[in-house]
Amino acid sequence: MTSExxxxxxxxxxxxFGHLCIDKSRLPxxxxxxxxxxxFVAEWLLDKIVPGSGALNLAExxxxxxxxxxxxxxxxxxxxxIFDLTQGxxxxxxxxxxxxxxxxxxGRVIPEPLAQIxxxxxxxxxxxxxxxERYKMLLRQGIWGKINLAMLPDGKVEVIGFExxxxxxxxxxxxxxxxxxxxxxxxxxxxxxxxxxxxQHPSYTQEAKTWILARLLPLVESxxxxxxxxxxxxxxxxxxxxxxxxxxLISGGKVTPAQLFINGKTKEVGLLGRHDVVVLDEVQSLTxxxxxxxxGPLKNYLASGRYNRSGFADVSSDCSxxxxxxxxxxxQLQPRNEDNLIANLPKFFAETALLDRxxxxxxGWQVPKFRREMIAxxxxxxxxxxxxxxxxxxxxxxxxSYVQQHTQFDKSTTVRDQNAIHKSAAGFLxxxxxxxxxxxxxxxxxxxxxxxxxxxxxxxxxxxLDDEFRQFGRNIYVEVK
Length: 481
What we know:
The structure is a single chain. The protein has about 475 residues and is an alpha/beta fold. The chain folds into two domains: about 75-165; about 180-480, Rossmann fold (3-Layer(aba) Sandwich), CATH 3.40.50. Helix content is about 35%, strand content about 15%. The chain has helices at about 10-15, 25-30, 40-50, 60-70, 80-85, 130-135, 170-180, 185-195, 205-215, 215-220, 240, 255-260, 270-275, 290-305, 350-355, 385-390, 400-405, 415-430, 440-465, and strands at about 20-25, 90-100, 115, 120-125, 145-150, 155-165, 225-230, 245-250, 275-280, 305, 315, 320-325, 360-365, 380, 405-410, 480. The longest helix has 26 residues, at about 440-465.
């Protein structure tokens, strides 16, 4: 069934999800994302300040603009805010806040938590322990929210109030019951709309939709590592930038071991230990000062979910790692190096032991370039709710059990191939069938086949690069049982 033959049912989405959905045409007309507000925060704000449907009218735009001018600090507002605080004022703002605990060498006093507000370059604000107790996520990736700042008599900035934005716990049973009220095509289109794409655009074929939704796999599966290769402009990083603060996106250039793993000087745990998903963008231009210092611990982490560095104790994490890179296409818009898709990536990818630890390669060249008319304009799920629902599904083992029960491989499939395909298929199952109500034909078409295609791309490169992998043959064979 093509996307043109099915009408998107806005009323059904509203009836089933109520206050958890939003008219997606609100966001593009608000201009909020252009001032650096991620979509999951922007949608929350729109719903609070100017609830409604359709593009924002002039009065609503003015209301939002006034709010943004007052509440969203820019980097150059720092001095003005600090001046106001010295005059005894309380400043209210909306920003990302993190909390760190500074350990002193041989210190006998229990250290106080310190809040950081990166946009203002404020690093050591006093914050009540009760706030940190209530919102433990502040200690990991941080939380977007409303922050009230004041100044203590000793000149230290203090957080005197905090109200977080993110949706808290998601009831997965209720989410599954909501899914049951949609057919598979309607649900797929709802998911696509929720992350900001117009599911009724004729360029979004069934296949294109599958690979856009594959970008959600690292959210629903813990320790799920994948490479996404696509030409510029297909929206590779779009989903990751906008869905949750538990996802961290680093754009190309240099990546240091301190950033990724652990900082030897401050003893602060790096990105892989604090986030649920870490995304390295523009991987084709990625460089390391000392590649061995990164690749060794990285290989260890991708295989075991643990890493250590410079004598520190092991850090365990369930963070998924995503590598995004551009790929060269020929005149037929197919990859120039079809046998070895990683040909244009940095040299360290050509080490098959590293490559083997990725579950697959998303064929992003099968996703059309993103144009203005491809922006969602229907009713979709609010991103803060949707992102949290996806991340909550990580802990549910019923999906992997279903996959293991209904999948069989031939003898030439390696254990890593099997594990990768199991994880990808379980991920597709969580995304498309969270209620676990499906036929084996549904499972084969929507979960197992795309999972196998993702891994086959890894096998093709291994087969091309390393004689050792030729003994297994070129193709992976898997079937439903």
